[in-house]
Automatic annotation (TrEMBL):
GO MF entry, a single one: hydrolase activity
Protein name (database record): DUF1080 domain-containing protein
Keyword Aminoacyl-tRNA synthetase included in the entry's annotation: no
Domain (3-keto-alpha-glucoside-1,2-lyase/3-keto-2-hydroxy-glucal hydratase): residue spans on this chain: 39-181
UniProt organism field: Mucilaginibacter ginsenosidivorans
Top-rank taxon: Bacteria
Transmembrane segment boundaries: none
Length: 210
């Protein structure tokens, strides 16, 4: 019997639709990564391995444009080897937006590193390097209070119009607030990791506005 992951699409405070489905490996489309479904107690976990360049696992048949995404994420405290997040508004395997985290910077004593804990990018044009050089401090921020970089943390990504807000571990103050840089009309959503990074995710909830 193959393991499954439950993805619950619930109603938020805004207009939305509700649906529940289960996901197997056949419902995930990995790109440049090996995918495995594991367990954390009774909870299913999606794991992507580490390789060069970025990687993503798309949720086949799942669409998302507006609303909110909630997810538990785990990376690691290994400098430049832990970039984990969620890709959304995907058009294809190269064109999409990402909110991702650098757990190795969560509790860094260097204030410059600490300020690079959560990041927005719009690939392929607006990568982290371009945004850091041209808009320093605007599309990446610290996460306060800082989570343990080696343990699970909870993220909520809210998208309303062009505004994107990222909340961590239930904090009512967003760690990151940005306006999206592209309007691609993409609808794909998936699990994303950066160069040389692996990652783990569980308890995905998608709140989709009508």
């Amino acid at each position: 019997m193959k393991p499954i992951i439950a993805i619950i699409i619930l109603c938020a405070s805004f207009n939305c639709f509700a649906q529940q489905k289960t996901i197997t490996e056949k419902d995930l489309v990995p790109v440049n990564r090996l995918l495995s479904l594991e367990k954390d107690g009774a909870t299913q976990v999606i794991h992507l391995d580490a390789k060069g360049d970025d990687g993503v696992a798309w949720l086949k048949g799942q669409e998302f444009t507006q609303g909110a995404i909630e997810i538990d994420i785990k990376g690691k405290d290994e400098l430049q080897h832990s970039f984990v997040g969620i890709a959304f508004h995907g058009v294809d395997d190269k064109t999409f937006e990402v909110i991702y985290f650098r757990p190795f910077n969560f509790r860094a004593t260097d204030p410059v590193r600490k300020a690079h804990a959560v990041q927005y990018v719009a690939l392929p044009v607006y990568d982290w390097e371009k945004l850091r050089n041209e808009h320093p401090g605007q599309y990446e921020k610290p996460v306060n209070p800082a989570p343990d970089p080696n343990r699970w943390f909870h993220a909520r990504i809210e998208i309303k119009g062009a505004a994107i807000k990222v909340f961590v571990n239930g904090d009512t103050t967003p760690s990151l607030t940005v306006n999206e840089l592209v309007h691609s009309n993409g609808k794909m959503i998936g699990y994303w990791v950066g160069n040389t990074s692996d990652g783990d995710w569980k308890n995905l909830k998608i709140y989709s506005a009508k």
